[in-house]
Amino acid sequence: MTGKVRVEVEGRSLTLTNLGKVLYPDAVFTKAEVIDYYTRTAPVLLPHLRGRPLTVKRYPDGVDGQFFFEKNAPGHTPDWVRTVTLPAPGSSKGREKIDFAVVDDLATLVYYANLAALELHVPMWRVSEEGVPLPPDTLVFDLDPGAPATIVECCEVALLLREALDEDGYEGSPKTSGIKGMQLYVPWDSDEDASAYARALARRLEHRHAFVTSVMAKRERPGKVFIDWSQNNPAKTTVAPYSLRAGSAPAVSTPLSWEEVDACTSPEQLVFTARDVLDRVQRHGDLFRASTA
């Protein structure tokens, strides 16, 4: 199917295009299947997107083609898509401000899926109804394994973080990155600086465990798990729970149970495709429901 299809989504009129285009050639996974995946996961995905300025990674010719990051809402964005104008310090395109889209509803999610926005990235903070940035409501630790370390070692570090967070009175929820690492999210309503706390905790574990590093330099990371605390910088974004990733397969950044983290002995155990995640959501609901919703 290569033509245009007019659809109505929750009262919004949309034109879907090139539905038969294969966006994941190795898996023969089409744009129609991308739209279907995002539509069916919307009940668990949207709570983690609502109120958060969106950055997307678009692959108009599929994962083997050229891609680009997009923060500014496209010029053809429908007027019913919510946008917020925010400062853009250090913008690579020299903009002083950017008009970010905010995915508050299914129609907006489908609109972006139709643009081949495979990856959805959001910050750890939301905007108010008036479009004013609010303090962070989530703390994130991004766990990145340096070869030969894998997600198995990331799981070990996640368990260490869980224990340390518990000592401090916090509770986290794990998810895969959908590539090789994982993230740990913590609901945050403290007056303490989130980034400073994350950095201090990462350093605490670095001093206790030889296979942990809080240092970004590549030379420090072989065989270790890098706890990237800097993702809590307000200017940074992290891939959203349930977002697709642009690899050879339509893998997903997938929420996990702590039992799965504890039981992980092989990287293959924690690789989940779009179809796997649809099954998991049907069985478990949103494993992240208490973390960022």
* CATH class label of the domain at 4-134: Alpha Beta
Unreliable residue stretches: none
Average pLDDT confidence is 94
- Share in β-strands: 15-25%
The proportion of residues forming helix, as a percent range, comes to 25-40%
How would you describe this protein?
By secondary structure, the chain is an alpha+beta fold. It has a domain at 4-134: DNA primase, PRIM domain (Alpha-Beta Complex). It is built from 6 helices and 15 strands. The chain has helices spanning 31-49, 106-114, 151-167, 194-208, 258-263, 274-284, and strands at 4-9, 12-17, 22-24, 29-30, 55-58, 68-70, 83-87, 97-101, 117-122, 138-145, 173-176, 182-187, 212-213, 225-228, 238-239. The strands form 5 sheets. A 5-stranded mixed β-sheet has the order 11-12-10-14-13, covered by helices on one side. The chain has a 4-stranded antiparallel β-sheet with strand order 6-5-9-15, covered by helices on one side. Helix 1 (31-49) packs across helix 6. The chain is globular, with a radius of gyration of 19 Å. The two termini are 36 Å apart. The mean pLDDT is 94.
